[in-house]
Amino acid sequence: MIRLKVALAMAAGIAAISSAPAFAAKAKSEEKADAAPIAIPAPPPGKGQIVFFRPGGMGFALGCSVNENGEKISSLGAGRYFILVTEPGTHQYSVKSEAKDTLGLLVESDETQFAKCKIKMGIVAGRPDIQPATEEEFRKQKSLKLVDEDDMGPAPGALRPAEIAAALAQAPAAE
Amino acid sequence: MLAIFVATILSAAAVEAAAPESDGVSSADATEMVLSASLPEGGKAPLSDDPESARRDITIPKLTPISIQILKPLGSKLSKTGETFPIRLAAPILVNGVEAVPAGTEGMGEVIHAKKSGGMGAAGELVVTARYLDVDGRQLPLRSLHWAQSGQSRVDTVNTLNVASAASPLPIGLVGFFIGGGQINVAEGALADAKTAADFSIALPQVSSQQAGTGQELSEGDLAVPSGAVPDEAVDTESAAADVHQGGKE
Fold it and tell me: Most buried of A72, B85, B103, B227, CB within 10 angstroms?
């Protein structure tokens, strides 16, 4: 009986060891799936859009809440991004913590622009710094994830995951 | 008898003159005939005395790519948000091979956002756009000048210093307050790509008889035949008529 138990335990151990590479491979493939290029839908006709993102790194615990006219569009944690569809024209986006930083952007119809938020050193706490960016910079970031829906500001604002999926289903991804 | 003979000749001439209208020909054919009829002896026509009638409209389509030159140095430290700057068309705008707007046409751009670099590694920022070109006293609106950049950020360097500072008894992290980011500068004469923002009709002057096509490869401009004037060479009048007809629609 004891021998049988030992044999069963050994068999279970061997099975676990042999299946470990399979688990690792599965995890890797999931990782690869995560690392697939982020699909950004084209903006609706006559509208423009901005992709805000925040590279990972220092100050990951600090928030970078993007606002326009005092109204929150979305929080932006480290390694996150969100898409804002808006009217063409000049817009002022701000981030605020210990100090306020503002970025002016000219949104043009049927075009996608990019902006990034970085956390720089402050006297008491880190300060968010919002800057213009390029698609190349956005694509360089590894494993960016969409901001969680509950971290987004009141709708309509940042595109919700369902809205992105619907937009991608309707039209191909923006170039 | 002489009176009858004269009357017969006159009536025959009248019937001949009325015949083209009664044949139910297309408007293009009719225009061709009008053009043919307007050709004086030898196929040469004088340019119209009326400058307005010697012009025709062509349309520059929306989103036509153009190249512009920035005529003033710009920079994240140098420029201020909202300031305007002169621009110039670097290469002519062509529509079907015809020069619609010549190179050198001047216009205006605008600084949408400028922020000089700051302490703690913050980079300078500059966002500029092209607003319009002055064409025949009107503004040809422009868009899509993508010059939204930030300078070299040294925020990561400062953050690394902070990490080192945490592990060191010395407050080396304070050095970060004196580390500035890079500025963005645009040199005078820099070239940039933009697009036209809307359809824009423009009246082009009639080509002179010396400028007209040689009969080899005729461009749209060579075929421009507004009322009373045609190029002096062997013009494909059917194409010319169609061109005039198209011009008439605009």
Answer: B85
| DSSP characters over B160-180 | HHHHHHHTSSS-GGGGGGG--
Burial of A95 (0-12, 13-18, 19+ CB in 10 A): buried
- The answer to whether ipTM exceeds 0.85 is no
Q: Write the CATH number for A56.
A: 2.60.40
Pairwise CB contact (< 8 Å): B162 & A131 = no
Residues of A in contact with B81 (CB under 8 A): 104
- For testing the chain B interface, which of A90, A103, A120 should be mutated: the one with the most B CBs within 10 Å? A120
Mean pLDDT by 10 residues, chain B (250 residues): 48 44 41 36 44 74 94 91 96 92 95 83 87 94 78 57 56 54 84 94 69 38 34 34 32
Residue A175 within a domain: no
Average confidence (pLDDT) over A64-88: 90
Highest mean pLDDT among A41-50, A149-158, B20-29, B139-148: A41-50
Contact criterion met (CB below 8 Å) for A42 and A172:
yes
> Are residues A1 and A66 both part of a single domain?
no
Would you identify the CATH topology of the domain B59-201? Answer: Lipocalin (2.40.128)
Question: How far from chain centre, in Å, is Cα A44?
Answer: 21
Please indicate whether, in this complex, the C-beta atoms of B150 and A132 are within 8 angstroms of each other: yes
Which residues on A lie below 8 Å from B174 (Cβ)?
Answer: none
Between chains, do B144 and A113 touch, taking CB under 8 Å as contact? no
Nearest to B109 by CA among B140, B125, B131: B131
Domain-by-domain residue ranges, chain B? 59-201, 207-250
List CB contacts (< 8 A) between B182 and chain A.
none
Whether A84 and A159 have beta carbons less than 8 Å apart is answered as: yes
* Cβ-defined contact of A118 to B144 (cutoff 8 Å): no
Nearest to A132 among B129, B148, B156 (CB): B148
